[in-house]
Amino acid sequence: MMLFFGNHGDYEVTCNFFSKEGQTIAKKRVCHNVSKKEARDGMRDYVTNRFSDIIDVAHPIKVVAKLTTK
Length: 70
Fold this sequence. Notes:
Blueprint: E1 9-18, E2 24-34, H1 36-50, E3 62-67
Antiparallel strand pairs: 1-2, 1-3
């Protein structure tokens, strides 16, 4: 358990990857009350599990997390 929660917040996470047909696919989500690393890892897990049948494994999955301002 973390004692300091200063690095937690709401992050808008964007993920870009290629399908087996060569198309670029982008997915965007908002993760609430998590660290930046948790937001990126959660999005990578979501995309890997949800789109496992169409992801081109020869190309990397790019994940970018930005802190939302509200």
